[in-house]
Request: fold
Amino acid sequence: MPSLRVTLRGLARTPLFTIVAVLSLALGIGANTAIFSLLDQILLRKLPVKNPEELVYLYSPGPVQGSMSTDEPDGPSFTYPVFRELQKVPGPFAGLAGARNRAVSLAYNRQASHGTARLVSGNYFDVLGVRAASGRLFTEADDRTPGDHPLAILDHGYWTSRFGNDPSVLNQTIIVNGYPMTIVGVAQKGFTSERPGSPPDLYVPISMWKEITPEAGSLEDRRNYWVTLLARLKPGVTQVQAEAAINVPYHAQVEQDVQLLRQPNPNFLQRFRARKIILKPGQNGRGNLRENGRQPLYLLMGITAMVLLIACANVANLQLARSAARTREVAIRLSMGASRPRLIRQLLGESCVVAIAGGVLGLFAAKWTLRAIIASIPPATGVPGSLSADLDGRVLLFSLALSIATGLLFGLFPALQASRPNVVSELKNQTGQISSSGSANVFRKTLVTLQMGIALLLLISAGLLAETLVNLERINLGIRVDHLMSFSLLPKLNRYTDQSVANFYEQLTDRLAAIPGVQSVSAARVPAIAGSSSGTNITVEGFTPTTDDSAQSNFNTIGAGFFRTLGTPVLLGREFTRSDNATAPKVAMVNEAFVKRFLPNQNPIGRHIGQGTSKPDIQIVGVVKDAKYADMREPPPAVFYTPLPQTTRWNTLFFYLRTAVDPEQTAASIRREVAALDANLPIRELKTMQTQIDENMFVERILSTLTGTFAGLATVLAAIGLYGVLAFNVMRRTREIGIRMALGAGAGQVRRLVLREVGVMLAIGTAAGVGLAVIAGKFLQTFLFGMQASDPMVIAASAVLLWGIAVAAAYLPARRATRVDPMVALRYE
Reply:
């Protein structure tokens, strides 16, 4: 305690140093803590289940014949019969479970909403080792007979937000897609399925698949791939051993499926038979959140580490300057018998106190930064609900370790330097004389040069990401996003038939068109630029496919006036009208990419196409200009369009309204018109098209904003470091400058003396920064669009900006140097 009081008194005697050092470190540590918290929640944190390191996920990439639906990349879906057969095999797993998310309509006490149900096998919670927060969880007895177990378990988050943690909801009925289901339990707090970032509202037995999924085929269909599988390894079984063991019975299942293939060619048959199960570790969960967030988080973590490095360099320079002013004090203490190790411990103690104070203040900065980042993520992504701005124990330990490490990092060299003065010469010096060894001066300049290089690297990175965002915003989408409102409906979740959905569509279209300010209304099966797509094999009159996949095309089913509503020009022929109904001849429209691929240098109007291997009986009546289909970054693929009234299977409807007023003003009217037709049918994703586009670019926008903010912070810190070193050097060289001026040196010569020093550090720092940017560009390129990481304009602009800020920071010390009074300087000692 006495030594702590001495340390605090010492810091209190230099309040400016203490405040600047603490604030610099607070910003650096706060930024690192915030990004580490996100990285921990998304990538590092293990699932809150029993022994998560024993979990594995099953994948089987390769070709399939039939229908495939998946909720994550790499085709992890299996057929239900294969899942059940593998469950029966006494293999390497202590348990094998199946699951799949589905969108559902929910109703409780006559209040309808939309949500997500996770269909799970009866042993799902047992395999994961999850407990019930209230009531009970499913058992295998709850999943034996298809359609015979109308039970539900609430996710803890949904129980809290929808029911206020009310235990009386147990044994109550909740309506799921029109089916009454009994709530039997609540899952444990913190568990949101094995897919972090995609929390369901409730869990339903997987044997209720047909009741939950409209138009679902038979559970026994071996050509319908939709179940995702997870397993727990038996004690002592490694992942490699388990993979080899499970593929024996799996190959037998694949051979059964070979018998169901329809006219496969030899190449397809060979690839189909080569399918095998691949196991992946399951302790951190699965899903798109981890895969999509990995590289952006690593990038941000690297950037914030550089910001902290610059902050540490600043504080190290401040420590050196402070130590230089204390050389006489240190010399006196050494002459009176104080040991050098004791002085080093005291000086390092001061550094650690400053760092810990910066870390404590940084926690507040981290919490504010986390809140700002989470608030900027679109709710439609589902990500904000899975993230928390609270700093848990792991993050606090990280912040503490980071604070101590920075204290030692920026304090060690200054402590070593300050504790070895020349005692005799320092005692002869008069009080006030600032001395500094050559090694300390070189170290200070090296730190500033390093700061300049890192700052330039961050400025270049920020410039590249900002330019990428601009490029994305300038993309010609092929549609007019202004004054365009969109929303979706899933009538079949409310047990509508195909005919009743068709009738509902016609009635709602008329009602929406009558809303004041609405100019046109249409709908589609596949939403525009929302990451969704549909494709099929086609037969095109006059086109001969050369390979198995050369006759593949994307498609969409759209309503009358769809392109007029979206603002996409029709180049040839006509657009669909209300007369293109179920009794009219089959017609289609195609885009430019379709024509270039299937009918180059030909007039497509009047040609016929067919879906699959069916006879071409759909006449092309129009050609529409290319528009972005699923992804803004991808070029428009070949797409053909058919009229909604001519479809026989109605699914999700995505409505679009072109308005003459602010589209958000129509939101209340849209809700009213939907409720007038069906009050139990919830509206989904009611938003403007501009909001949809912004959601598509939210990763680029967040990266650009955060990188720009951190680069600006780093540059300011580097400029402060440069100013500090120059100001110290001017003060240290006061006598030299006075002599030069007494011998006739002018103000311009003195300024050049100071600025020459700046120029050398800037030149080396610029070369280092550009070199680092070239190396980092290989990683950064994956985030860029429409440009290269070596873009000379961005590099040049960043260098000019850095030089401008550096010269501005050097101006005051240079100006102060020219105002030295030679007579005062000669008496400076």
